[in-house]
UniProtKB/TrEMBL annotation:
Record organism: Rotaria magnacalcarata
BP-aspect Gene Ontology terms: cell-cell adhesion
Topology versus the membrane: Single-pass type I membrane protein
Boundaries of every Ig-like domain copy: 6-95
Location in or out of the cell: Membrane
Name listed for the protein in its UniProt record: Ig-like domain-containing protein
Amino acid sequence: MFLDAPIIRLTGGGIISENKRLILACIVDAYPTVDSYEWYKNDEKLNISPLTSSFIIEKISKDDAGIYACSARNTLKFLNGSSMEKFDKSQARVTVEYAPIVTSLTPILAMDLFTLNIKLQCDVDSYPESTI
């Protein structure tokens, strides 16, 4: 008997619009088959069933952006009770597009007394970056 380490391909990453559904799939080629999966976001383990080969966010938000990873583990068990494990890990970047949000609107201390124009500084958060 032999043990092949899982070979993983993580699909579903890239740029996705806010409020859309994100599906990340951990596609694995392994012998024997995979025993368990682990999911990570920005190197922090997510609390997901070890039997889950896909990760779904129904309505993605800008806070969900990051680097996601899936690891898969398989085990070969011998008749004498010993075993051998192997695993692999793959990652994908998820970038979320979202509409501009005004984070601050500040008057600048400059006023034109003839036209009564006031200058404002407007700070905006968005992806892709907005132009004002």
